[in-house]
Amino acid sequence: MFSKLKKNFRNFVSIIKNEKKFISCEWLENGIIFDHANIIRVCCEQSHEGKGRYILEDSFNGLWLDIDKILNNKQVLKNKIRNNIIPDSCKGCQFLKNDFWKEKKVFSNILLTHWSNCNTRCIYCPAVRDNNLKDANHYNIIPIIEQLIDAKLVNQDTKFSIAGGESTIYPEFDKLLYFLIDYGIKNININSSGIKYSPSIADAISKNLAEIVISIDAASSFLYKLIKGTDTFNIVIENVKRYLDYQQIGEKRVILKFILLKGYNDNKKDLLDWFMLCSNIGIKKLALDIDIAWYNEMQANIPSYVIDLVLFAKEMSKLNNIELDLYDRACIIYKYSKIDRKEHK
């Protein structure tokens, strides 16, 4: 209720100042992604008509960031948006919304995916499908972040997400995480397979500065091995428990993720087993998504059983008192199901 009143007040102030609404999103306005293959992007969303992933720089060597060039390229994009010209890459994206967007002097979201190697071979990973998991083209990101800090484009409220590849096997991972902590970054999201235990992550969890999202996708070692390409299910579960030991009471810093895969875990039994596993080991927050290749294949005509699975997951989260985040494609399906139910009332 309070947040709604606060938003209404901000909108009232914007109207008084003669500001206008226009369609944009948080990443278009205030985000940047350091991707692998020497590319810098605006976003990583690609489950829509335009396929997203707007490129700001396609030949970044990792040695020196031409900040003026990046900001100029981003401003060209913003100018189009402010003139109601939606880039082809953004068309149909669920994250676009009509709002009083304001210019910010800092990046609110930075995603680091400049590292592509991994210690799993997940069958849903595009890099695995394209045989593109390798150590090449990675660079030390810390000097680049220092550039952004010196240019006052990063502050303590900037949200950093670290992905890859596998975050914990990035050579500078521990140094990077402690660099962010020492600078005072308060919101760090780490995506990991959970195979390699990281004391630096445990430390960040204990200080309420970071959360770790582990994609486990199964509740048994057999199914896990089929999906992940490695026989490390029990190791991951033990590491999850170790991270939970560092989580403060009432916090939800250790998150287990389940990606629905056609023909593997796309059924209520595997979802239920996953909920029971997470409940038994004390997980209080989960995430659900859908394999991007499968989603892109079926998005024009989403099977009813897939919608039922997403709704089932929401119901199970309520019954087990576990918070559930619906990630990109699962979120789209949930929104679709709500619209569909309204139309059939």
What does this structure look like?
With 345 residues, the protein is an alpha/beta fold. It has a domain at 252-345. Helices cover 41% and strands 16% of the residues. It contains 13 helices and twelve strands. The chain has helices spanning 2-16, 26-30, 67-82, 126-129, 142-150, 173-183, 199-206, 221-228, 233-245, 268-281, 292-298, 304-319, 328-343, and strands at residues 22-24, 31-35, 39-41, 55-57, 97-99, 109-113, 159-162, 187-192, 210-215, 254-260, 285-290, 323-326. The strands form two sheets. A ten-stranded mixed sheet has the order 4-3-2-6-7-8-9-10-11-12. Strands 1-5 form a two-stranded antiparallel ribbon. Helix 6 (173-183) links the parallel strand 7 and strand 8 (187-192). Helix 10 (268-281) runs parallel beside helix 12 and helix 12 packs across helix 13 (328-343). It is globular.
Q: What are the SSEs and their pairings?
A:
Layout: H1 2-16, E1 22-24, H2 26-30, E2 31-35, E3 39-41, E4 55-57, H3 67-82, E5 97-99, E6 109-113, H4 126-129, H5 142-150, E7 159-162, H6 173-183, E8 187-192, H7 199-206, E9 210-215, H8 221-228, H9 233-245, E10 254-260, H10 268-281, E11 285-290, H11 292-298, H12 304-319, E12 323-326, H13 328-343
Parallel strand pairs: 2-6, 6-7, 7-8, 8-9, 9-10, 10-11, 11-12
Antiparallel strand pairs: 1-5, 2-3, 3-4
Helix pairs in contact: 10-12, 12-13
